[in-house]
Each structure stands twice: as C-alpha cells, then as structure tokens.
Amino acid sequence: MDETAGDNMRAGSFTLSASPRILAFDSGIGGLSIVAALRRHLPHAHIDYLADTAFFPYGGQDDDILKRHIVSLLENAILRLAPDVVVIACNTASTLALAALREICGVPFVGCVPPIRWAARITRSKVIGLLATPATVRRAYITDLRNHYAPDCTVIAYGARDLAALAESAFRGVPPDATCIRQDVAGLFEQPSGSRIDAVALGCTHYTFVADALRAASPPDVAWLDPADAVARQTRHVLETTGLSTGVRSEPEHIWFTAPPYNPARLENGLKKLRYDQPELWAST
Fold first, then answer.
1. Domain coordinates in residue numbering, the chain
2. Binding-site positions
C-alpha cells in the first residue's frame, strides 16, 4: 500500500459525487476505524461492511485454515455484492490472504499493513515500535516490511493478546482496563532499547479505538501512527483510476456479522455514527 497515493484526483475518471460500492472486511469491528476514514475521503461512497465474528479473533486460528476461510468468504461476498473495490481492513487478513484474493477475484483490493514505512520516515532515534496482534507480529511479512522500508531502523514488536478485545468493548462505550493498557505499552517500551522508541506503528485496526489510552500510558513525545487515513487515500486512488460511473445508489448500506455480535445494544450507537442501522447476520450461500 502506497501511503501517499490518492491525494490528487484524475480528471474525468472519478468525482466526489460518484457513489462507488465499497466492501470493507475485518475479523470484527476494528475495520470500522477504516470506514470512518473512508467516510471522510469518499463522502458519497456506498460502504458495506462484513465482520467475520464467527472466526474472531484471527490470531487463534491455523494459518492455512484461516486463509482458505477468508478467500472462500470473500469470494462469496463479491459474487453477491459486486463491489467496485474491496478494502481488507485487517492486518492479519491482508498479510495472510491478500495475494491469493488478488489472484482469484476479479476486483481491486486495498490491504492494510502496519505503517512501518511511515514510522521509519519520521523517527529521529531510528528505533520504532510495532504494536499488533501476536498473529501479525509473527508473520514473515513484517520482516519483509522492515527490510524494505526501515532497513536502517531497529523495529521492536509486541504482540498484544487481549487488546483487540478491549478495543471491541471500547467501541461499545466501555473504557479499556488501565492495567491492561499499561501492560501492553510496557511490552514495547521495556524491551531492550525500548526507551528509545519515538514512533509506534499500530498493527491492528481495532487499536484505533484505544489509541488515546495507549498514548496516555506511553512516554511523552511518542508518535502513535494509525494507518486508517492512508488506507482511505489508497482506496480513493484505486477508484479514481478505474473510470467508474457516477450513478447514485439508492439501496441502503449494510453491516453484516458472520456470527451474532456480543452486546449488540451497546454496538448500535457506534454504528449509527457511521451511518449503519441494525447489524445483520451474514448467511453464506
């Protein structure tokens, strides 16, 4: 993903009045942080959302099984919804299945990867942090990102086991447990050379919902980098180069879950802010 793409519109190919259909996908509600950014950058877009809550959290799944599952689920969703672009608003799904999806499915995809490149650009100490799920931290893709975009930096990674679940609760209005937040922050900054970290890449879209708490628990003057705006800019860039029609869609936007979400009543307020009504249960065909 090019973090700088999509800042300029290409004349004649796409306009802000267009109503492209976007399908955003995540293991849970973390990708709604990407949806919020898409609303800002593409205010007229039709955005459907699919949360794979039946398999949440992805970190506990076998890689091969999870990859096949994601590809099958999204193949089915693309056939049913015919989106103009699919946004994989999940780091684990992006690092695991994005290449296969691009090969198999005939629509453009935008993935989400930890903003290590961004962190490498702004760090002064040349020591950057990565806070992600254990599943993301252990993937070879992270090493590839570091080698390609931050070869002169030390990257200190920490896989937070329960932070995504805390973020799910935070979206529902439940303040994150301060002790858990401090432990996850300490997991980064108390590693060797951790005191030199001056930029932290958020490697899970869920973490946007607890970013303020993470920032408050960290040393001062540390930049916490959220990739949501970069993903939205890249999505806009992809759409503006496809020459889409500018028709306005009249059908409602949908948010689906592959298993009933917990505490749906607490979920509704956050969904309404993003222009979604009642969550629906996704039925595979």
1. 21-112+229-281, 116-226
2. 26-27, 58-59, 91-92, 205-206
- The answer to whether the 21-112+229-281 and 116-226 domains have the same CATH topology is yes
User: Residue ranges for the binding site for substrate?
Assistant: 26-27, 58-59, 91-92, 205-206
- pLDDT at position 249 is 58
Task: Identify the band that residue 8 occupies on the pLDDT scale cut at 50, 70 and 90.
Answer: very low
As its CATH architecture, domain 21-112+229-281 has 3-Layer(aba) Sandwich (3.40)
Residues 79 and 146: their CA atoms lie apart, in Å, by: 36
Is the pLDDT assigned to residue 9 strictly greater than 70?
Answer: no
Residues catalogued as catalytic:
90, 204
CATH code for residues 116-226 = 3.40.50.1860
Task: Tell me the pLDDT tens digit for each residue of 108-121.
Answer: 999 998 999 999 99
